[in-house]
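thread: overnight batch results

M.L. [08:02]
morning all. the overnight job finished for the chain we discussed friday. pasting input first so we're all looking at the same thing
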Amino acid sequence: MGPKDAIEFLLGYDFSRTGYICLSDTYTIAKAEENPVLKNILNQSILTLPDGKPIELYARLKGYREVSTVSGYWLLRALLKPGIRHYFYGADTSTLQQMSDSFKNEFPAAEILGYKSPPILASEEIPDNAVIATDFAEINRLGPDIVWIGISSPKQDFLMAHHQERLEHGIMIGIGGVFNYVAGNQKISPEWIKEIGMRWLYRLIQEPGRLWRKYLFAISRFFMLFAREIYNRHLSRKN
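M.L. [08:03]
and the structure it wrote out:
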């Protein structure tokens, strides 16, 4: 599935069927390889889409030839059209206000029902958090079709999986740092950088202090997965 397929799927989706969609980067996939709970969360989603060229290449190496990168930023923009109701859950209040201003200027016809900044929590605090439960009660009162979740990965995946049963209508889509792109707090990488699989480097240059440990783990672990897959394929051919 690629971007056009994902957009077509969501434009025709029956939002009375609740659930969540994950856009997974290399860090999330690397963490899932060592965390069976996270792996199950990704496997139980409506869709788990590759957020980055390395994930696309790895999926194709495993035989999924039709897979291609789906950008959360462009997915959001493609779905901000009349007929779909949206709610945004993530980031801080300042970022959400900047997002609201941006949407009013660029997508004045978009049906946006609300914005809310979630509490800052560790992953293990997410499942039974009372504040999140209260926030979902308000989301249900408003009844959006898509709740866009904008917190760091894989926390957003844990939040969507653990709280999907609270959602009475619509789906959640985890798009992480896209909130900052929309607000104008960060620059999104040019398309050619994404196409050559170097978006991670573009982001690292922007935020080296916050991202270097995360990317060091993700890149080293992900290359190990690649090497293991190539080795296994080589063995299978010999046998």
